[in-house]
Each structure stands twice: as structure tokens, then as C-alpha cells.
Amino acid sequence: MSEKVKLRSADGEMFEVDAEVAFSSLTVKNMIEDTGASAPVPVPNVNSKVLSKIIEYCAYHVEQDRKSKDADDHAKRQIEEETTKWDKDYINVDQAV
Predict the structure, then answer these.
(1) Can you name the residues that pair with 15 across neighbouring β-strands?
(2) How many Å is the Cα radius of gyration of the chain?
(3) Angle CA(53)–CA(94)–CA(45) in degrees, nearest 5?
């Protein structure tokens, strides 16, 4: 079971995420290293809608990295192509978020 980290958005919503996912954001990683992860880590100036999208992005890329670690060259290329397509779709997110 992986270690969990709690993140608190600017509007007070709590998110529990795998530490590996949280650490994939350099900003969050630095905050956790500075303050520890025993209490919820505040993510100021980031509302819950935006934070949930950031977590989605980080979680996807952590999973893709896990998949590609043990993959052969052909599978790595497929994963890279899939990730590129996913990223392109992801950036078309509703700007109201």
C-alpha cells in the first residue's frame, strides 16, 4: 500500500492522493518537504476544480511512467504516443475551470 498525502485546496476541499502523485508536482513536493505530510498540505491560490485537474494530470503521468519502466521499446513508443494524445486532449479542458 502506498503512502497517502492530503492536499487542501484554497477553498478548503481535501484530496487524498498517493505520495508519488503529489511529489510529481515540484511545488507540492517542496511544500511537503518543508512542512511534512502529517497534516493536510495547503495548496494556496488553487481552487478545488483546478486542483482536481492537476491531480488527474499527475496521476496519469505517474501511471504512464510505471507502465513504461518495464516495457520493451515497442511498448514504450505506444505508451509515449498514447500519452501525447492524452496530453493534447487534456489541454482542451474547459477554460472555466
Answers:
(1) 7
(2) 15
(3) 50
Amino acid at 67: K
Of 97, 12, 19, residue with least CA distance to 58 = 19
- What does pTM read for this prediction? 0.85
Contacts of 57 (CB under 8 A, 6+ apart): 90
Query: Greatest CA span in the chain, whole angstroms?
Result: 44
Q: What share of the chain is helix, strand, coil (3-state, %, to 5)?
A: 55, 10, 30
Distance CA 90, CA 12 (A): 25
Cβ burial, residue 78 (10 Å; 0-12/13-18/19+)? middle
Rounding to the nearest 10 degrees, give the CA dihedral for residues 85, 5, 18, 65. Answer: 50
Q: Phi/psi of residue 9, each to 5°?
A: -75, 170
pLDDT of residue 1: 47
Rounded to the nearest integer, the mean pLDDT of the chain is: 90
